[in-house]
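Lab manual, section 2.4: Encoding a predicted structure.

Procedure: take the sequence of the chain (253 residues), apply the prediction step described in section 2.3, and record the output as structure tokens. A sample record is shown.
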Amino acid sequence: MRHTTRRALVTAAAALVLAGCATVRPGPSGAAETGSRTTRQEQDRLLEAAEQRLVAECLDGQGLSLPPVNQARAPASQDLRLQTALFGKDPRELSLTLATGLTVTANSDGCVATARATLYGDQNRWFRAQVTVDNLRAEAQARMKDDPAHRAALDRWTRCAAPAGGPRAGRPDPVVAVRCTRESGLADVRARLEPAELATVRTLHRDQVVAYEQLRARALRRAAELSAVTRKTTTKNTAPDETLTEKKGNDAS
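Recorded output:
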């Protein structure tokens, strides 16, 4: 997660919670503790707000802050300082190789890592659980490729998207890709196979799925505490001065 421009840094920091947070729906292991009255999306927003607040506080402690998105790019030295403060210094200490062969790495230092450690507690355990859960669908899709029906549909899709004698671009036009996915039957095959494959990979990674929900529940409690403190502080700072109000009332009488 390295960015060279100021805009990219802002974008990355504004999306600190990974988009895959909702890949696995909460089961009995997590729903009881986090409360059933809030939706998964509401929980995601709470976690994101808490993480961004912690990151901002961490940067503020170093005399730094995230610039507005539309602000002109800062000198390279300032960008590098902000980047390092956000994401830490190499080498990256956290690493996990998935069943698909993809290796994901991350730093254990930097404001983003510090914020997540505060919320989730065990930083290494959360990294492994989150990366695993975020890639369950990719692993399920990789497993589908061994199915004969999927291979046949994929062959039909390839002939449709890149017919013999035609151009073979790295990626076909999105409109063509969607049409070919439908006409080749690939969409139907995936819809039939994916639920079973997802169930299989969830079972294979049950320990990480359980850890993900447990750590998420812990983070939600911590985020709620931070939110409560913020509301209390805001209310205290904006409350009217009752003594002054009473004095003015007496003067009027």
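Check your result against the sample. Strands lie at 94-97, 103-106.
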